Amino acid sequence: MEDAGKVFVIGHRNPDSDSICSAIAYAELRRQQGLPGVKAARAGTINLQTQFVLDSLDVEVPELLADVHPRIKDVVTEKVISIHHSAPMSKAIELYHQHHIRILPVVNNAGQAQGLLLLKKITEFFLVPTEPEKLRRIHASLSSIQSCLNATAQHLFNPDLLEDLDLHVGARREASFSRWVDGIIPEKTILITGDRPGIQQLAVDAGVRLLIVSGNAPVDDKLLIAARKNNVSILVSHYDTANCAWLTRMATPVGLLAETDFMVVKPNDLLENLRIKLTHGKQPAAIVCSVDGLVAGVATKSHLIKNSPIKLILVDHNELSQAVPGADKVEIIEVIDHHRLGNFHTDLPIRFINQPLGSTCSLVSTLYQQAGIEPEKKIAGLMLAGLLSDTLILKSPTTTETDRQLIPWLEKFSGLDHQEFGSQLFAAGSLMASGTPARKLILTDFKEYGAGDFLLGLGQVEVVNFHSFHQRQTEVITELKKIRENKGYELAALLITDIDMETSLLLTAGSSELPFIIGYPQEADNLYRLDGVLSRKKQLVPHLLKVFKSA
Fold first, then answer.
1. Comparing C-alpha atoms, which of 249, 255, 212, 214 is closest to residue 136?
2. How would you classify residue 37: left for phi > 0, otherwise alpha for psi between -120 and 50, otherwise beta?
3. Which of 39, 195, 264, 384 places its Cα 20 to 30 Å from the Cα of 426?
């Protein structure tokens, strides 16, 4: 079984009734067959006929997917691990190790991004200093040092002050140490020593900024009195001297080493845009921030190879030019269709069912039968509606014997009469008579086709008579010409089909040579009569493809 995640069953960009109804019906079939996360969706606005079908059967309109381009939020799904800008470096090291990460977003009190902390930069700073003297440089507060050492404070003076200090270890004999003290700046000095009362006293008398006593060595009361008098802070740690020295260096606040020139992206940004930025930019990662600036994650190059959780099952089409935008960027796991094969490629074998039936709903119905699953009333009604719509109530030349044999089966489970139901859905879906704007009228059921070097755009609308079309002919041809110019089509056309008379008119916007090559009787300028032509797919498109490929 496929690892589904989110599986959308979806039709083409200008969905008709067959496209919507087959998506809903097939999603229900796959759900019953155990495919997790499957649901129907749509790639465009539904038409009046489809709305009538859904309303009459009390079925919800499927979710609209404007596109399925992978987004950053689709692949950056890990729980975000961040660190406050005042936290010591030891905390960052702990987080790196605990969560097996290399990058930490640095945040302020509100959780907003302040920088990016890179493990590589930290190790270079502490382990590969360019100057030996940098090994002893400490930029931290005494309270931060206390936290890193897990130390007990015997006396602290101005513990929260961020300072630049020099770290030394009191491992000398007292005589040489006394001379060494004369060469330091006491108020800038941190001294670490163990159970050496003499060294401790000399350090306090000199007025060092901080005395760290390692190994939980005792501190004399007289020493504490002198420390308070000289403003010498004293910490006692259970760590030995070597570890005290290492951890003290780890007390530097992370905000001081964080990259402040960092990339910020939004969860809804396209993954492809992130790919370009990370591939061609200098930053190793980007901080993912919500609209209000809160850190939501870290995006790295490793995220670019992750697959989107969205998967598609295409119904009623198999050409990417007709699919929801971004379909070529996600995994397509199935195709259920009844059209010609287009330019479709996959990396892995998929379930691809394509049958020369009158509708995709007919194909889905046969899959229910093969699975031995009886559709519920609403689903049977949807499949009947899609079948009747695409076959023009069984009048279209695309209608097959299988389509006709399915009618009684669908009537049984839906409780509908196909003649009555078909008449109702075509009456409800008359776009021409409804006053629908010309552009929407043309594009509601509109598809693109490649013919050699030419691109054709063909729409179709059904009417009960041509009277409503002739009233709007000038308006429609004007809009058709605009569509041709904007899209660069060699031919933009609208097929107006009278389902009662079983004939069509073809309104065209094309080159001046079109009347000489199209091969249909011309009824008026830009208008051709296609007697007996009801199907765009089976009758019109094959003819036009042949004509333009020859041209």
1. 249
2. left
3. 39
Nearest of 260, 256, 255, 307 to residue 283 by alpha carbon? 260
Distance CA 265, CA 248 (A): 35
Token output for 483: 């569509």
Domain ranges within the chain, ordered by starting residue: 6-70+309-428, 89-256, 438-550
**CATH for 438-550 (3.40.1380.10, 2.60.40.2140, 3.30.365.10, 3.10.310.20):** 3.10.310.20
The listed CATH number (3.90.1640.10, 3.40.50.620, 3.40.50.1100, 1.10.3720.10) that belongs to domain 6-70+309-428: 3.90.1640.10
Q: Please answer whether residues 347 and 364 qualify as being in contact, where contact means their C-beta atoms are separated by less than 8 angstroms.
A: no
Six-digit token pair at 374?
């009886």
For residues 121 and 258, the answer to whether their CB atoms sit within 8 Å is: no
CA-CA distance, 440 to 293, in Å (whole number)?
40
Q: Is 530 helix (H, G, I), strand (E, B) or coil?
A: strand
What confidence tens digit (pLDDT) does each residue in 424-442 have?
A: 898 887 777 777 899 999 9
For the chain, state the CA radius of gyration.
Answer: 38
Query: Which residues are CB-contacts of 486 (< 8 A; sequence separation ≥ 6)?
Result: none
Residue 130 burial (C-beta neighbours within 10 Å; 0-12, 13-18, 19+): exposed
Residue 241 structure tokens:
């001297």
Is the dihedral angle over the CA atoms 222, 225, 229, 231 positive or is it negative?
positive
Class of the CATH-defined domain 89-256? alpha beta
| Terminal CA-CA length for the chain | 48
Beta strands in 156-222, from DSSP E residues, in sequence order: 163-169, 189-193, 210-213
Report the C-alpha gap between 86 and 355 in whole angstroms.
Answer: 66
Per-residue pLDDT of 271-313, as tens digits, reads 999 999 998 888 889 999 998 889 999 999 888 888 889 999 9
pTM of this structure: 0.67
Average pLDDT over residues 479-501: 94
- Polymer length in residues for the chain: 551
Please say whether the beta carbons of 529 and 503 come within 8 A. Answer: yes
Q: What is the 3-state secondary structure (H, E, C) of 40-54?
A: EEECCCCCHHHHHHH
Q: How does DSSP classify residue 20?
A: H
Q: Which two tokens stand for residue 20?
A: 């919507």
Give the 3-state secondary structure of residue 261: coil
Alpha helix positions (H), 430-540:
438-443, 467-487, 514-517
- Type of residue numbered 179: R
At residue 380's C-alpha, the angle toward residues 377 and 382, to 5°, is 110
Q: What is the pLDDT of residues 77-134, one digit of tens each?
A: 889 999 999 888 888 988 988 888 889 999 999 999 999 998 877 776 666 555 666 6
The count of other CB atoms within 10 Å of the CB of residue 353 is 15
